[in-house]
Design a protein that fits this description.
The protein is of the alpha/beta class. Helix content is 49%, strand content 11%. The chain has an eight-stranded parallel β-barrel with strand order 1-2-3-4-5-6-7-8, surrounded by four helices. It binds 2,3-dihydroxy-5-OXO-hexanedioate. 2,3-dihydroxy-5-OXO-hexanedioate binds next to strand 8.
Length: 314
Amino acid sequence: MSKMTPQEMAQKIGSGLLSFPVTPFKADYSFDEATYRANMDWLCGYDVAGLFAAGGTGEFFSLTPTEVPQVVKVAVEETKGRVPVLAGTGYGTAIAREIAIGAEKAGADGLLLLPPYLTHSEQDGLAAHVEAVCAAVKIGVIVYNRDNAVLQPDTLARLVERCPNLVGYKDGIGDIELMTRVYTKLGDRLTYVGGLPTAETFALPYLDMGVTTYSSAVFNFVPEFATNFYAAVRKRDQATIHAGLKNFILPLIEIRNRKKGYAVSIIKAGMKVIGRDSGPVRPPLTDLTEQEIAELTALVKKLPAIQSSQQAAE
Ligand SMILES: O=C([O-])C(=O)C[C@H](O)[C@@H](O)C(=O)[O-]
């Protein structure tokens, strides 16, 4: 199957909800390919515009540069062309290029460029880093503003002139002024993705800043809720959005905020809650306690009642 052009990829992912699947591990922390395949096949049955293999929720930061293309290859095989598969890449320029090339060879339709490792840098250094990764592949690249990787609008404007395959911008910072300046400067040259932890929280205000989609981690284990919520955001259905935030997202965030790293660990716990146990998180993350899993179970069990009451209200 011919690969999507960067522009086709950008248009597709900007049109719908984005899935960031967990990467299942066995008890010995090795990649659990069979569970990953089962999860991929199941999630492809829902209305998603893209699937990001080995992203943040996929514990990119705990995978080796060799594992990432292996995970991507399985995702590409299992989605069978039903959904575009994008791959995480990152760390320093040399490793980011290596992973990007490997992911493209594995069949990825695009890349999400996560921040460099540890060091902070100036705009011209970040720009050279992004340009080097874009130049290494033909597929589309989405840059991820987050932590030590903050590209300013003028830098982005220079980059899109030099990198035709730079087609997306993911916001992981939550700075409204910066997001507004980026969108005002770059307009429809880029597709914009909301990428803050538990992205549903910010989806409606971000939509008014030109951010038409977001990375939904909870989609992993409550796909009906996540797709209904996204549909409500696109319709600006305030009642459904605020009910979903009040009854599910905000109580989930209360558990998520108890420990560092729980933004990913709680998603793995959610997989256990729905009977798709995807194993432990790899260190340095820690898993939820049994008590916290019981709280999450109670939250998930209430969802059907919430959704049916919303449908009744419509
Ligand atoms: O790689 C990433 O940025 C993510 O996995 C982001 C998450 O999906 C985040 O948006 C969330 O927790 O909803």
